[in-house]
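Follow-up to my post from last week.
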Amino acid sequence: MTHAITNIGLIVIFGIVMIPVYLMVAGWLFGGPRDFRTVGISIGYMLGFTVVILIGLAITGAAITIIVNL
Amino acid sequence: MSPDIDGERVLRPLHNTTKGHFALLVVFGLAALWLLVAWVYQLRGGMMTVTNLGDWGTAGGVPWGLYIGAFVWWIGIAHGGIAISAAVTVFKIERFRPIARIAEVLTVFALGMAAANIVFSLGRPDRIFNTIVQWPLTVYHSPLAWDIAVITLYLVLSLTYITLSLRDEIYALRPRLPWWLGPIYSVILLGYRPAESEKVEQITWWLAVAILALVPLLSGGVVPWLFGLIAAQPGWFGAAAGPSMLVESLTSAMAFVIIVVAAFRYAYGWEDMIEEAILVDLSKVLALLVLATIWFVIHDVLTGLYLAPAHIDVITETMLTLPFFWLAIGGLLVSFTYLAATVLRPDWFSIPVLVVVSGVVAISILNKKVMFIVEGLMHPSVPPLTNLYPAGEYFPNWVEWSLVLGSIVLVGLGFVIVSKIIPMIELEDAGELVDEPRSSRTDGDSSPDVAADGGVLSGGKLNGSAADTERQPVNSAISDPVDTTGRGVAESDTVGLDSDSATTEEDR
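User reply:
Got it. Predicted complex:
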């Protein structure tokens, strides 16, 4: 038996969980004082940390592969 | 600066390293090495061979055990730290400000350990990056993919929050900070301009709001949905799993915050800056959370026994026969009794006892979470899982204990290291600390709270004095003239994206 409702991942993540993030970014952009440069730096940090975490996962996987095959 | 925060004593750990600190570093380092040995042993021997964890279609046992229990536990602990700090920012609960930084750092380490325990639990951890590669396909239907997304989001928000909240402080204190950590401070100060302070305050306020909103969506949402959405395991399935797990998580989080705060307070002699009243307040919150946890247990047991469906009835009755269940409940009840008693009789309050009680609470919650994981897998009620998980027994072996206990040690090691990098108490007016002549900055003898023997009068064990260590060189890259406003430099200055030194826009 299949359930259509089991394919609700996009709604859960982008429609529910991310709402606080949307509000946060809107607050950054439209709230005072207006300073898009600092907002850009903040978003840059978030993207940077995300990339570092993903690269860290890739390195972890590669390191484990080496350890297992030694 | 806040009148009760002595900036000099907050900064001293960054320069003065005592024997006690080195001893902790060695002990935690050796324990971390043991974790590594155990993990390599598991990697090379194979998960199922060296642990008691089974797998689909094997002769019994459970595929998830202590590791996943510890994962859920660490996720819960991660909420206590940043939530306290965010509450200080959003609700202006200023009395908790002295512990905000410690709590923030705890969150980052706890999230890291949650992720580590997931990796420990993978049969093929070398393929972990596949979870990212396949994420666009799995996010549609997999609660595990949701979990990866939300934990990553929470970690990114937490790291951004800490980094932004440090920028003013690090910039003002740069001449006082260890020069050899310059690259770390340069990352924190990317594109910094003193004029950004007001906007950064607004940005961190919104970050705090988002983080607080994510607490029920992570520990009360995505993590419980890993279990609560699966009808095949009666112990997991149910709409109350979210609220129940959230309360348990906040309980263990508060217990951990108390332990870490008390440890810093004792180690560095910060009794006057982190007042006992803060720990009294935290203990009252912990009492309420423990009571709420017990309340949810009563819900579980009553609905599981009173005319429950057969499979739920069996699982509840089985749980009530387990000594581990009663150990967890006993721990919670004893802890609550003490915490409630201190509310009625404040003179019974004792920080060492509170730390012990908090430890009992944290361990009880870990115990309960592991039981929750295992009981669902032990009693599958719907095909095909009834064939995939035949009845079996589970008890963690030395490898699993080593890795989970090792993850606790790693958090300790992380705190020992990070306390040498950033001030562990927020210094709101850090600029005041660079107003005095540099010749006295690292001279511990000039500090009135240093005893003749170099120890700290207020009882700190790791503070030491400048006499214990060499005088720290001032970062020669920082050559800005320090003004008397405490702000450090002119408004037009910007920290370069590619340089340790501060340069003016005109220079660019």
